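Before the break, one more example. Copy the sequence into your notebook; we will annotate it together after we see the structure.
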Amino acid sequence: MIGYVTLGTNDLSRAAKFYDALLVELGGKRFMEDERFIAWSAGEHAAGIGLTKPFDGKPATVGNGVMVALVVDSRDKVDRVHKRALELGGTDEGPAGPRGEGFYAGYFRDPDGNKLNVFCMG
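Here is what the structure looks like once it is written out:
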């Protein structure tokens, strides 16, 4: 249902380094960019993530209660992606582990403070 999610950044170069290294773990790569915006996707019809400097010229801020969830196919991949996010300068918002029956996830924030999780079912 979701086509893509766009997150704000105040430092596009720093954010791009984080997402280039993180999203390769999910098969993602850059497919669009200009001086204010970069987008990644894992395929032509796959959902994607975009980063942008806000159009209005004001500083990017984090949405309270907003989170992007990245789906993977195994608990091992959840562990790897969560660990990689922290290695890249992200901050831990909840270690990888079971979160109720059949749901396994790890939570983190990117260097701009945007909250993400990586999860699998089963």
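The chain has two helices and eight strands. Residues 75-87 form the longest helix (13 residues). Try to locate both features in your own notes.
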